[in-house]
Amino acid sequence: MVDSTLVKKTAEVVAMTSRVLLDALVPLIEDLSSQMPETERYRRLLHTLRALFPSDATALLRLDGDTLVPLAIDGLSSDTLGRRFRVSEHPRFARILAREGPTRFSASSDLPDPYDGLVKGVSGHLEVHDCLGCPLVINGRAWGLLTLDALDPARFDGIDMASLQAFLSLAAATVSVAERIDTLARTSEAERQRAEVYRQASGPRRREMIGSSGPHNRLQEEIAIVASSDLTVLVTGETGVGKELVASEIHALSPRADKPLISLNCAALPDTLVESELFGHVRGAFSGASSDRRGKFELADGGTLFLDEVGELPLPVQAKLLRVLQNGQLQRIGSDSEHKVDVRLIAATNRDLAEEVREGRFRADFYHRLSVYPLVVPPLRERGRDVLLLAGYFLEENRSRLGLLSLRLSADAQAALLAYRWPGNVRELEHLIGRSALKALAAHRERPRILTLTAADLTLSGDTAPATAPAAAPPLPAPGADFRETVTAYERTLILDALTRHNQNWASAARELGMDRANLNRLARRLGLK
């Protein structure tokens, strides 16, 4: 009687467990045949995971080479989505990927936890807890993994591995469907192959365009539209928004992805060298031309040429560029022969070129030839919570560089980042995270395992003066001071202050000071600043 009763109760428990599992999985099965955004599909997957296997934090990560990219999170801080975890630097992830089935880490495991400092509701070090990781295998290869973390170290003691395995099979199907839909959404198989060729050729050094805000997504859509064409693109936006990253993305998605992307910063060269850099020269063309040299156009033949700060080009060079863009013919300096090139041009500027045309500082015909397809990169202050995703990316970069177990943001630091206006945009955020991490680390006598950046570490003010704010009036010189020395000192101060406001960009500083760039260069040399 006892044995039959036990068997009956066991059967009831199994049946109940099966019903709970089935009730939870049915919506996911129905989702497989539904059209929905990838982010929503993955959000539902993690929601079901936490319902079946109660935990405090879950995450879905895709394996990209040696890097795990978070696609969806639940219970982890927002900046986690912007982080990129190198498997070689995180032994727990490496162990999960090395096994076929789920891996549970003992509460006493001394392996560092990659989520230390990222679990919501935990302000200090992530104490002893329960940790479970499951690899996702699709078509015989490791696609990524799912992780579950619970603050209770015994939370997963009674977990039903059969139910977990069933969920993992459905999770793999969900991921597979999401990827298939994404593939079918591409305009052609050729585009997909070109993107893959670029991804393999560029390797891990290529930076992603990270973000999920409306303005960021609209920019991505515009990039996808123009990338498949050969149209000339004019990328505009404030300093530091990532215009060079947009150019790189256009090239990566273009039919020229397996050809070179050559860049030239037009503001970084003296006027006398711009033409040589663009078109090349022959031996003896000018003093110092000791051999023939190909220019950027020839180096980019078949690929893409990116002209950054194109608004700084001298008017004579603009005329010669216009001819190359119209017929693809160029001449090296000092040569009578012509070279034919096939180059797709992408230009970028933070200047209002239409206004420059009206002021006579930019050729109207060249402007219209450049702006066949204009793209405006939104400033960071208009991208909402993207600032936290980008911060997460830069935090992980600095965590790896500084050799820390975890580098994170406190709640007040996150609030400060969201409230700040970001006059220097993404570049300012990158420099801020790197600088703040270094200073915060130096403030500790003993090297910490986890470093938390607070709002005080970031030293952000609520309001930011515009970059073109007028310089303060000079202090009155002391009685008897030499007039010429006083004027020279003030000139030096004006130039240095302008350069600081414009991140050492001499062309931008010249515009603020109302000077021609060549005149500013000559004055700087006379003052000993160059």
Automatic annotation (TrEMBL):
InterPro entries: AAA+_ATPase (IPR003593), AAA_lid_NorR (IPR058031), GAF (IPR003018), GAF-like_dom_sf (IPR029016), Homeodomain-like_sf (IPR009057), HTH_Fis (IPR002197), P-loop_NTPase (IPR027417), Sigma_54_int (IPR002078). Signal peptide: none annotated. GO terms for molecular function: ATP binding; sequence-specific DNA binding. The keyword Metal-binding does not apply. The keyword Disulfide bond does not apply. This is Sigma-54 dependent transcription regulator. Residues 209-438 form the Sigma-54 factor interaction domain. It comes from Caballeronia cordobensis (Burkholderia cordobensis). Pfam families: AAA_lid_14, GAF, Sigma54_activat. It comes from the Bacteria. The lineage of its organism: Bacteria, Pseudomonadati, Pseudomonadota, Betaproteobacteria, Burkholderiales. Gene3D superfamilies: 1.10.8.60, 3.30.450.40, Homeodomain-like (1.10.10.60), P-loop containing nucleotide triphosphate hydrolases (3.40.50.300). GO terms for biological process: regulation of DNA-templated transcription.
